[in-house]
What does this fold into?
Amino acid sequence: MQLVLDKITKQFNEKQVLQGVEQRFEKGKIYGLLGRNGAGKTTLFVVQLPERRAEDGWRPGLIGG
It folds into this structure.
């Protein structure tokens, strides 16, 4: 099972928070996400929720079993 993000984009008013983010998170691996305050770390995961979608990009959610 894996979580795939492909060209995720998110904007709040005039501020572009995420732009073209691509990442593949594989089952059984540990990942860290580093960045300054306001860099979009939390937003990257929040846009995976159905009620808080990204403006653009492919987010299939979990793939595999």
